[in-house]
Design goal:
Helix 6 packs across helix 9. The chain starts with 9 loop residues before the first helix and ends with a helix. It is of the alpha/beta class and 176 residues long. Strands 1-2-3-4 form a four-stranded parallel β-sheet. The protein has nine helices and four strands. 25% of the residues are buried. Strand 2, helix 3 and strand 3 form a beta-alpha-beta unit.
Length: 176
């Protein structure tokens, strides 16, 4: 009898690295999702996120997904080397700028990226395309009130007062 086993991403399977430098912004899949996949399959691989994102929720989200470090792309090369050594020693490493971002809480700033459901994401995408609540309800074959309920939930999750603000933050954090 053949057993079905989840495979590692091909590069991880082939190379069996000790450390992975992972860009968060990838064209086909989120680096955060890859981080979660790698972490589920191999707890020993050290993952260092590289990103241009300098927002606290993004940094906290990738670290919460299993990354061992976070280095902004504009950091000097020595910081990447330091991050690799720290990760190999079992430490969590944040480049200097990321440490400053995480330690300086701004009033009204989200502490982490909100978790949104598949349906909320669908509605968010349609709202961002300019569809009205009635148009969204018709397109998704759900009631007007259900769409309104999802819109209200999104506003609450993002802790803002308008869907425009939700769309802005969702775009900024790569959710849409």
């Amino acid at each position: 009898m053949l057993q079905h086993r989840r495979r590692r991403p091909p590069a991880i399977e082939t190379l069996a690295p000790d450390v992975v430098l992972l860009d968060i912004n990838l064209p086909d899949i989120s680096g955060i999702d890859i981080c979660r996949q790698v972490r589920k399959q191999d707890k020993d691989i050290r993952i260092i996120a590289l990103s241009v994102h300098n927002e606290r929720p993004v940094i906290k989200n990738i670290l919460g997904s299993g990354a061992n470090g976070y280095v902004l792309k504009n950091s000097v090369g020595e910081e990447i080397i330091t991050a690799i050594h720290a990760a190999l020693n079992g430490e969590t490493y944040l480049c200097r700028a990321a440490r400053d971002i995480v330690s300086n809480i701004q009033e009204g700033e989200l502490s982490e990226i909100p978790k949104i459901t598949r349906r909320e994401k669908e509605i968010l995408l349609l709202v961002s395309k300019g569809l009205t609540t009635a148009q969204i309800a018709e397109q998704l074959f759900i009631s007007f009130h259900t769409v309104e309920s999802h819109r209200k939930n999104l506003i609450e999750k993002f802790d803002v007062s308008t869907m425009t603000a939700v769309i802005k933050l969702a775009t900024q954090y790569g959710l849409i």
